[in-house]
Amino acid sequence: MNNTQDTTYTIPAKYRKMENMHIVFWLLKDISWCMVWKVLGLAMIIPTVAIAVMIAWRTRDIASERAHNLAILFWISANSFWMVSEFLHFDAHLFWGVEGKHLALVPFAIGALILAWYYLVQKPKEEREGQVVTL
After folding, report:
1. Higher pLDDT among residues 3 and 91, named by residue
2. Rounded to whole angstroms, how far apart are CA atoms 58 and 65?
3. Which residues is 98 bridged to in the sheet?
4. Distance CA 24, CA 22 (A)
5. Residues 62 and 88 sit within 8 Å (Cβ to Cβ)
6. Hey, where are the domains in the chain?
7. Where residue 2 falls among pLDDT bands split at 50, 70, 90?
8. Which residues cross the membrane (predicted)?
9. Global confidence as pTM
10. pLDDT digits over 38-93, tens only?
11. What share of the chain is helix, strand, coil (3-state, %, to 5)?
């Protein structure tokens, strides 16, 4: 028998619906990018990023959720910037061999660093303190 407190993470139905719509907007954005539907692709950035911000804010008190949802937010931001660079044609060489899509590495890297911090620092600390939720 486990001596740690049984912790269950639940998602209220209204938040789950919001997360599901987030997936729909994200897919529409990426399909639009793939099909070069510029207007729809650019328009889908707004709800996709907005909902990612809301999800990250809502889960800010749970370290694991916060880290993963911030990484997703930065991933979507990088992905959106890359799409915009292609749609607006600044994906060609800008300077010193750098292309518009290379600038998307900044938010990609920020998301990766957030996850690295969580897995290398925060989670081991939580495990030492007995605060981590195990699945």
Report:
1. 91
2. 9
3. 95
4. 5
5. no
6. 13-129
7. very low
8. 35-57, 69-90, 102-121
9. 0.84
10. 999 999 999 999 999 999 999 999 999 999 999 999 999 999 999 999 999 887 77
11. 75, 5, 25
